[in-house]
């Protein structure tokens, strides 16, 4: 079966050049990558949000983690209560820049199979989160 993605054409040229900065949500809860999975799940529940921005000890964003990803780690056979967020991330990313167009970011998200992207500045600090509308 072949899936066909239909997109409407923008009514004007400004819609094409809309950037991630125009559409992102401001940075929500940020946690350090040395936090355990259990604590992160508690923070996520108390913040009533879908994801946490994870930063290293220098303040650089290392990724974005959601409830389903944390629950999968907790329910895995190799789980221990000492597993930290830094232990569940492979490569850093994917990330996007605030000057990336929304179309480019959406394409990257589909290619990377992610629901949301951390938006970082030139120093790697989290500015917000870009997510596709559902």
TrEMBL record:
Residues 21-71, 96-130 form the CBS domain. InterPro entries: CBS_dom, CBS_dom_sf, Diverse_CBS-Domain. Coiled coil: none annotated. Keywords: CBS domain. The keyword Cytoplasm does not apply. Signal peptide: none annotated. PANTHER family: CBS DOMAIN-CONTAINING PROTEIN CBSX3, MITOCHONDRIAL, REGULATORY PROTEIN. This is CBS domain-containing protein. It comes from Streptomyces brevispora. The lineage of its organism: Bacteria, Bacillati, Actinomycetota, Actinomycetes, Kitasatosporales.
């Amino acid at each position: 079966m072949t899936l066909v993605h239909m997109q409407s054409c923008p009514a004007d040229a400004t819609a094409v050049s809309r950037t991630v900065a125009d559409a992102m949500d401001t940075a929500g809860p940020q946690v350090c990558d040395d936090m355990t999975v259990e604590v992160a799940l508690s923070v996520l529940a108390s913040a009533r949000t879908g994801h946490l921005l994870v930063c290293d000890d220098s303040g650089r964003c290392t990724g974005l983690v959601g409830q389903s990803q944390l629950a999968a780690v907790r329910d895995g056979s190799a789980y221990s209560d000492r597993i930290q967020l830094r232990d569940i991330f492979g490569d850093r990313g994917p990330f996007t820049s605030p000057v990336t167009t929304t179309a480019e970011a959406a394409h990257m998200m589909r290619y990377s199979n992610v629901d949301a992207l951390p938006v970082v500045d030139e120093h790697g600090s989290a500015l917000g989160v870009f997510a596709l509308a559902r």
